[in-house]
Design brief:
Distance between the termini of chain A: 32 Å
Structural class of chain A: mainly alpha
Oligomer: heterodimer
Largest interface: A-B, 58 and 54 residues
Strand content of chain A: under 5%
Strand order of the largest sheet of chain B: 1-2
Helix content of chain A: over 70%
Shape of chain B: globular
Helix content of chain B: over 70%
Radius of gyration of chain A: 21 Å
Order of helices and strands of chain A: HHHHHHHEEEHHHHEHHH
Distance between the termini of chain B: 37 Å
Radius of gyration of chain B: 27 Å
Shape of chain A: globular
Structural class of chain B: mainly alpha
Number of strands of chain A: 4
Largest sheet of chain A: 2 strands, antiparallel
């Protein structure tokens, strides 16, 4: 009996499931305690969710780049968070220049459009250059080589930004049209969060159209499916990969602007943690899957936003918001262990 | 593929790339930071070496390419490449003097323009002078291509050697005798006479070495196996002897550097098992370093009343086994969930774990046990007999002992059954599993052994500092260790030492450089992966694997031709 059990269940599997169950039980218990104690009002919960969705939108934009590059090259582009950082800096400098000219107050929407343009161009350029210089020579290299290269690119970009722009945190100028909140019933909806929703939605619709309906999109999908076959069918593989990086970089640049509007800051280190979380989102949704990346981003944003108050507080952990980042990484670890294919896991991740 | 003949437009193209690189290093502040570091006192600064080194590299490369297909274009290519590179900093300097870019680019200051342009005036004339200087330098380098290959190599190596000796003044002034020092060095850099003499001596030495090396190797090859073993033992003994007196030789400052290198060597040995042997890319390696250090700190500090009520205060030697044990156990515990994943997922998941550990240490939740953001002070130092090991010169010995133990363990493991199983897993997991290797078990062993060595490094680190803050345990440490492995050569034990000395030692010695170390690491990682994935001191098998598709040179015939060539 015991021998049969041991044959069917690896001891490590048992330990894994035990860890999973303990985590689940403590989350449930913590949530129960918090909710019954009535420490937070329903308006507060709504605000947590709204903030989570806004943050999740930013994650989703970054995650798109991860997921597209993974889909097409099968590599984790560790430097993708730093494309986002470069976009953030570009947005900051455009915003600062516009603020000095007084344009930011008189024409807020046009200003944001200009910030977007600047950030997208910079981030996309950096992405395409990184692909051309660092990744292209390594197309057929053993699996860990591109990842290590990507780490190198990431550090190069971070410390280039530090050297060029300084190590301090840059504070975005105030955009009056995007500060403050609308009062909907008892709930205050931050204008900046609404802006993130709108922009993210527009970009996603645009991206969906691009991937599904255009020739470029078809080329990208075919290269993701099978590089050699695509090449035989007349698709320029190198160019398609470069375009993928271009699109990913553009999205990351847009995310940089959104981050600037919501958190109002830019720094050379800002790409690391959001990049990791965006990767988590991509994995959460099912890596290689564009809809999944969006879904994963929003889910992660919300979990991260309500998590500390919901279950960590209930477990009696002091200052639970310090552990906010820990939640995202715990989600990453749990997903990779229990469902490496993610939420929309129809496309089996080959290497997981 | 036939090579396209060289055209002068290629020289301009590479010149543009080089020029962009020069502008980049100027704008991130390297030129300014290095302008105070003299190589040859009052004549050549580090920043000039940097800029002209880039010009030389581009010119050398273009004229080399020209030499391969169109020899008559060598000199023009050199001049053109050098001039094009120099054009960029010249334009940058002119731009800076005209337009204020400082609101965006922090380092685009008038001082930078002063540094970039020769002469005192920042005008068009001096900009043209710089371009001409670049062209002249390119000409010189191009002319060098005409010199016989062996002499050229010696000249280049000697030039690099002089720069290094000038750069590492802090090291050499301690080591070399006083009379030499007075001849070679001034307050900031080499003396002019010293630099010239050094250049000549190094050229001759390098030339003699290139000539003599095949002969020596051949002689060693002729020795019988027993004789060779004796020779190796003698060399080892001499090395150990040098190591034993090294701290006295180096003095306190350099010993401190040696200690830091040593701790990274121990960690590198550990990660070498995980990444180099078993092929598991662990980016959260710092977690085990932190666990070792914190175990040492928590067990030995007089602070933290919550802990002291439960566990009595231990001394270093009592706490060390616990530090190792807890590192080992946490290696197993963290390994179990992690090892279910493969390849790049494993890398990211370990990164996530490293961050979780750091966040836990930083949080208020564990403050009574782990000290929170303020960290822990009063960590015990090792006591040997009546002596408490405190200063860096004394601390060298425990670290050295750690390195020797780590070296012994990894060297033995590598050729053991375990080591061969790890390498099988590294090459192909599925095949390894099919051959009857228990993947999870062996991977766990790799993870846990690596973790133990990291814990050893951490315990020594904590004890050496006497206090610790969570900020010392960020992801940069993991990247640092990974980078030194890649530079040295994955899986190679001497490579760990070479890598640690280069990547940890150099930034410690060159304070001007330390601000840019991560930037340089980024470039180094990318460049190594593209051009030299086997590292500087590769493992023999790894080298063969990575170059197996290149033109194979049968080893025996190569040796025979050399033997045949020498007596003639």
């Amino acid at each position: 009996m015991l021998a049969r059990l041991r044959r069917e269940f690896d001891i490590t599997d048992v330990i894994l499931y035990l860890i999973g169950v303990i985590l689940m039980v403590s989350i449930a218990y913590g949530s129960y305690v918090t909710i019954t104690s009535g420490k937070y009002t329903s308006a507060q919960w709504t605000n947590f969710v709204l903030f989570g969705l806004a943050q999740g939108g930013i994650y989703a934009l970054i995650a798109l780049g991860y997921t597209m590059v993974y889909g097409i090259l099968g590599m984790i582009n560790f430097a993708h968070g730093d494309f986002f950082m470069m976009g953030g800096f570009a947005a900051f400098f455009v915003a600062a220049a516009l603020a000095q000219a007084g344009f930011l107050e008189t024409n807020p929407f046009l200003s944001v459009a200009l910030m977007m343009l600047g950030a997208m161009i910079v981030a996309a350029t950096v992405a395409v250059l990184a692909e051309r210089i660092a990744y292209r020579p390594l197309r057929r290299a053993p699996r860990l080589v591109p990842l290590i290269t990507a780490i190198g690119v990431s550090y190069f970009l971070q410390y280039t930004a530090r050297g060029l722009f300084g190590s301090g945190v840059k504070a975005f100028p105030n955009i009056p049209a995007f500060t403050g909140a609308w009062q909907v019933g008892t709930i205050a909806v931050q204008k900046s969060q609404v802006a993130v929703f709108v922009v993210t939605t527009i970009l996603l619709v645009f991206l969906y159209f691009l991937i599904q309906r255009t020739k470029i999109g078809r080329a990208i999908r075919s290269v993701a499916e099978d590089k050699d076959a695509a090449a035989l069918m007349g698709v320029d593989v190198d160019r398609t990969i470069a375009i993928t990086f271009l699109i990913g970089g553009t999205m990351a640049g847009a995310a940089g602007v959104m981050y600037g509007i919501v958190f109002r800051q830019a720094s050379f280190i800002m790409g690391f943690i959001p990049g990791l979380k965006a990767f988590t989102s991509a994995v959460l949704g099912g890596i290689g899957n564009i809809t999944g990346a969006v879904l994963g981003g929003l889910t992660l944003g919300v979990v991260e936003s309500i998590g500390p108050s919901l279950f960590l507080d209930g477990l009696g952990i002091p200052s639970p918001h310090q552990l906010k980042d820990g939640i995202a990484f715990t989600v990453l670890v749990l997903i990779l262990i229990f469902r490496p294919t993610g939420i929309l896991g129809e496309r089996l991740a080959k290497r997981a | 593929m036939t090579q396209r003949p060289f055209r002068l437009i290629d020289a301009i193209r590479w010149g543009v790339y080089g020029g962009i690189a020069v502008v980049l290093i100027a704008l991130i502040g390297m030129v300014q930071a290095f302008s105070n570091k003299g190589i040859v006192a009052d004549r050549v600064t580090m920043s000039q070496v940097l800029v002209f080194g880039l010009i030389a590299a581009v010119a050398l490369m273009t004229s080399g390419r020209a030499a391969a297909t169109k020899p008559r274009l060598i000199i023009p290519a050199g001049i053109l490449a050098g001039g094009t590179v120099a054009l960029f900093p010249a334009l940058l300097a002119l731009l800076i003097t005209q337009v204020n870019l400082r609101s965006v680019l922090l380092n685009a200051s008038p001082e930078l323009a002063d540094l970039l342009l020769p002469g005192n005036a920042n005008d068009l004339v001096s900009a043209l002078q710089l371009v001409a200087l670049g062209g002249a330098f390119g000409f010189a380098v191009g002319a060098l291509t005409r010199v016989p290959a062996r002499v050229r190599r010696s000249l280049v190596s000697a030039g690099v050697g002089v720069i290094l000796i000038g750069l590492l003044q802090a090291v050499f002034v301690v080591i070399i005798p006083d009379s030499w020092r007075q001849f070679l060095y001034k307050a900031n850099g080499l003396s002019t006479n010293g630099a010239i003499a050094l250049f000549i001596v190094l050229t001759v030495l390098d030339y003699a070495w290139l000539r003599g090396r095949p002969l020596t190797q051949q002689q060693i090859g002729r020795l019988s196996a027993g004789r060779r073993r004796v020779l190796r033992m003698v060399v080892t003994l001499i090395m150990l002897g040098i190591l034993a007196v090294l701290p006295q030789l180096l003095g306190p400052f350099l010993s401190e550097v040696a200690d830091i290198i040593g701790i990274y060597i121990i960690m590198g040995m550990g990660l070498n098992i995980v990444v180099g042997f078993a092929g598991l890319l662990d980016l959260g390696y710092v977690a085990f370093f932190a666990i070792g250090a914190y175990t040492m700190a928590v067990l030995t500090t007089p602070e933290l009343p919550v802990v002291r009520n439960v566990i009595p205060q231990l001394n270093f030697w009592e706490a060390l086994p616990f530090a190792l044990l807890i590192s080992f156990v946490s290696g197993v515990l963290l390994g179990i969930p992690v090892l279910k994943t493969r390849g790049d997922y494993l890398a990211i998941i370990t990164l996530g774990f490293g961050e979780i550990i750091r966040l836990l240490v930083l949080s208020d939740a564990f403050k009574p046990i782990l000290g929170g953001a303020q960290g822990i002070t009063g960590v015990a130092r090792p006591r040997v007999g009546d002596i408490t090991v405190v200063n860096p010169q004394q601390f060298f010995y425990p670290i050295l002992a750690g390195i020797l133990i780590a070296w012994f363990i990894t060297a033995r493991l590598k050729i053991s059954r375990l080591g061969r199983a790890w390498m099988a897993i590294r090459e192909d997991e599925d095949v390894a599993a099919a051959m009857g290797i228990n993947l999870v078990g062996y991977k766990l062993m790799a993870f846990a052994t690596g973790a133990t060595l990291a814990g050893l490094g951490g315990a020594l680190f904590g004890s050496k500092l006497g206090s610790m803050v969570p900020a010392s345990f960020n992801v940069l440490v993991s990247i640092n260790v990974l980078a030194l492995l890649i530079v040295g050569g994955m899986g190679s034990l001497p490579g760990v030492i070479v890598g640690a000395a280069a990547l940890i030692g150099l930034p410690e010695l060159l304070r001007e450089f330390s601000e840019f170390r991560w930037w340089v690491y980024g470039i180094v990682l990318v460049a190594m992966m593209i051009f030299k994935p086997e590292g500087l001191w590769p493992e023999a098998t790894r080298l063969r694997e990575l170059h197996e598709f290149e033109t194979p040179v049968p080893v025996e015939t190569a040796e025979e031709t050399e033997t045949a060539a020498v007596p003639a």
